[in-house]
User: What shape does this take?
Amino acid sequence: MKTNFTFYCKPLLIAFLIGSLFFGSCKKNEDPILPPEIEMSIESPQITIDLEDTLLLKAISSSNSEYNQEWKLDGEVVSTVDSFEFIASKAGTYAINYRAHNSAGEFTATYNVIVNAKEEPEPEPEAPIRPITDESNMYVTELFDYLPAPGQFINKAPGNLASAKGILGGKGMVSLGAWGGSIVLGFDHTVINNEGEDIIIYNNAMGNFAEPGIIYVMQDENGNGKPDDTWYELEGSDFGNDGYIRNYSVTYTRPNPATADVPWKDNQGKSGVVATNTFHKQPYFPEWIEENEYTITGSVLSSKNIDMTNPSYITSASFEYGYADNTQGGDRVDISHAIDKNGEKVTLAGIDFIKIQTGIQANMGWLGELSTEVLGVADLKLVK
Assistant: This one.
């Protein structure tokens, strides 16, 4: 009996074990489906953006559940992935809906997006135009600043304040000294930017000897009658060439004794002197400047046109166009050549102020420093 019982029980035990393994295996492979669990990148249902802004919405899963998803913009499906980038083509209110779902459940999110119209900048007021009248003068009539650099004519005519005032309302002569010396003048009317040349600057240039000065112009944009708006350089033919530098600065130092050479140093690491000569023995550093040094900033032209190979016959050829004291008989310039601080062309309806600045730093032996001279400035429309 013992033997028969053992034989009978073993098959039952084996069958029970196999059945347990089978059913246990089936239960393990049939994990329950979980509903989607989502976190949105933006939680607030109210969103405000400006026109042409980009709104990026993301749905981030916090579980391993599988699900389908979609984004709808005003009821129309626009995406079936976990993110949606929205850019409005016009201002208004938009409804954006997100839905993730599977057989176990769903997750939804709704956004109300307000798109504001892009604010257009208010147009800048046009600069006032002072019309020409019967009393208008063809020449500049007001002196706003005279700041010469050191030079052989400074502190006496034609390098003093009386000489600077001498070109108002007519012709005279004023020297601006070495590089950077300048004069700021105003018209009694707005010089309109017409087609072609607009202003003439009278000078003492000769056929083989020019002392070019850079020209700047300004509109009286705020209408207060003062040159406190924006200066625009008139682009001349040397613009952009080797040796031409914008934002160039030179510091001049008062010498000791006062009649000695005037030292200078620039922002390019160079230094030198405005050399004195036997023809002009007065101090070259402007005596009305109280400080012992002063700094001048502007553009500098190349000195390529100066020929000193023959010391007894030094020449300084003129540039093609665009500068003061450059062309024998006077320099006619076009306001349309105005450029901004980045060298880009600007359109000016007209100008009220003009600034002329010596453009080259050069000592020319016995001739002394190169110094721009101005004999007069006039509106070409009124020149008879």
In short: The first strand starts at residue 38 and ends at 40.
